[in-house]
Design goal:
alpha+beta
Length: 99
């Protein structure tokens, strides 16, 4: 088990909270809640040790050229593929009303 932390520039806090996915399914779950203005904070708990660079690149691609809402995001991963991670994050953003 490994815990990773990431921060990115962000706008104003997101609206509301969301929970998407289910870690027990062999997938991952993503919890989103409002954060501090100007900062998107992501914490990843993953069963895949040594994957920090993969997570960093995935987040950089997702947020390149846009200013996401200020959120605290907790990800509980059980070996999900990058495509599934992106899908769950997009579902979470949709639930809190950010496109």
């Amino acid at each position: 088990m490994e815990t990773l932390s990431f921060q990115f520039p962000a706008g104003q806090p997101g609206r509301g909270r969301a929970l998407v996915g289910c870690v027990g399914s062999g997938d991952l779950e993503v919890l989103l809640e409002p954060g501090q203005p100007g900062t998107l904070t992501i914490q990843v708990q993953t069963s895949v040790n040594g994957s920090a660079a993969r997570w960093q690149h995935l987040f950089e691609r997702m947020f390149d050229g846009q200013l996401p809402p200020a959120l605290l995001i907790d990800i509980h991963d059980f070996g999900a593929t990058p495509g599934v991670v992106r899908l769950r994050l997009e579902q979470g953003f949709e639930e809190i009303g950010h496109d």
